[in-house]
Amino acid sequence: MSRDILAEATRFGVIPVVEIDAVDDADALAESLLEGGLGVVEVTFRTAAAADVIARISGRYADMLVGAGTVVTEADLRIASSAGARFSLAPGLSTRLLSVAREIGMPYAPGCMTPSDLQAGFEHGLKLFKFFPAMPAGGLPFLRAIAAPFALQGPRFIPTGGLRQENIADWLAEPAVAAIGGTWIANRSLIRSGDWAGIRRNAAAAVEAANRVRSAR
């Protein structure tokens, strides 16, 4: 039986979303997240170092499931795959990228913010979407509103954008939320300043909160 990589990526309840400028920081980042209990990371294609960071972490840390984020072109998708990314996410939905992802065997969660996005995704056999930008779009009430007409299709979501430690519980208590994307866990400032202890604390706090919510379901 083939592995469900997206199910593995969301099992922690929180996926740290990182912008990282230097491949030399990749090891300390991965180790800090793992020590905090997070075995997954989304490295965004917002910096020139993204592909090299993906290759470094995926090549050295077998316990870390590495994904690529902000995948907006076919080149991004193919580069991410070649670098060793095990899954990918995008801020929007492109039917072209859905086809390419299927062609190269890349688990792919496109962004959605409208019922049209969801319907297009269902037509391509998708169940999991990145809800982005979660808070600016209207937060949980908006997500519930666009998902309601498709209840029989059973969509799941990874809300990202404006989420923080304080509202983890609200989002993860929503049955349709598979995991949340957390930029606060290892943001660019923390990485640039080498605050690995801070990243480790943020990761541990996020895992604890996610576990608490899930155990209460």
Describe this structure in words.
By secondary structure, the chain is an alpha/beta fold. The protein has one domain: TIM Barrel (Alpha-Beta Barrel). Helix content is 47%, strand content 15%. The chain has helices spanning 5-10, 26-35, 50-60, 74-83, 95-104, 115-123, 134-137, 139-147, 168-172, 188-193, 196-216; strands spanning 14-18, 40-44, 65-69, 87-89, 108-109, 111-112, 128-131, 156-159, 180-182. The strands form two sheets. It has a six-stranded parallel β-sheet with strand order 5-4-3-2-1-9. α2 runs parallel beside α11, α3 runs parallel beside α4 and α4 packs parallel to α5 (95-104). The longest helix is centred in the C-terminal third of the chain and has 21 residues, at 196-216. The two termini are 29 Å apart.
List key phrases describing it:
217 residues; alpha/beta; TIM Barrel; 6-stranded parallel β-sheet; 3-stranded parallel β-sheet; 11 helices; 47% helix
SSE blueprint:
Blueprint: H1 5-10, E1 14-18, H2 26-35, E2 40-44, H3 50-60, E3 65-69, H4 74-83, E4 87-89, H5 95-104, E5 108-109, E6 111-112, H6 115-123, E7 128-131, H7 134-137, H8 139-147, E8 156-159, H9 168-172, E9 180-182, H10 188-193, H11 196-216
Parallel strand pairs: 1-2, 1-9, 2-3, 3-4, 4-5, 6-7, 7-8
Helix pairs in contact: 2-11, 3-4, 4-5
